[in-house]
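Q: How would the structure tokens look for this protein?
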Amino acid sequence: MSNTSPDVVFIHGLWVHASSWQPWQDLFATKGYTSIAPGWPGDKDTVAATREEPSGMDGVGIAQIFDHYADIIRGLDTKPIAIGHSFGGLIAQELLAHDLVRGAAAIDPAPIKGVTALPFSQLKSGLPVLKNPANKKRTVALTAKEFHYSFGNKIDEAECNAIFESVMIPGPGRPLFEDATAAFTRNSPAAVDTHHAVRGPLLLGAGTEDHVVPLVVTKQVAKLYADNPSSVTDLHEYPGKGHSLTLDSGWRDVADDVLAWLEEKALTPTPATA
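A: Here is the predicted structure in token form.
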């Protein structure tokens, strides 16, 4: 029997539908990788359906999202590679630390517990949710203007509006509250074992102009991993790119860099077995 387990599991971030990964999946397929891009708990199959009925994500937090992907991966025949953007990057790191995947790329990842930097642009990007404590139990959508500030600050308005219309979905408020209070929460769901986990390679990708996860934040994440000599952590910076770097017209630059890193780390497609 041939091995049909995917080589890559793509994990989307807050406010973006899983279908946003389709160009990446198509590109990775040309390089021999099979992949899946499951949605978060409560997501529906399409952008339109999720917008129409987003209440399934009410109250969904980081732990539930992690468990959702962990359950999917435990059902596979072999360990995949995790590639995540934003909160998906945080989940990818957790999956890697739990030895559920053989390697991971976390692109503009949401901060893990231990990060102390809180630049103004990051705070402003989260304000549409964090300004109202009741949003912790709700699903919240961004306006086009809010999306442009958070995701599209390095692309023109027309392109940003097109991305907004094609892949933006409401997202649960809970992960933002959990991330914002991670430093004060003993058993925070945003905690990742950066010191002792024996794991596969990790790539941290950072757009230098990101408003949602500014470069200084991802650099702090990289420093948290610095005293784990048994595991590889690399940081790649993407000059001039904002939080839309996996979605906008420059996505191929980032995807090609991730593919080159996977090849360098021997994280190649799993051969089919008879």
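Residues 8-264 form a domain with the Rossmann fold fold (CATH 3.40.50.1820).

The chain has a mean pLDDT of 95.

Upvote if useful.
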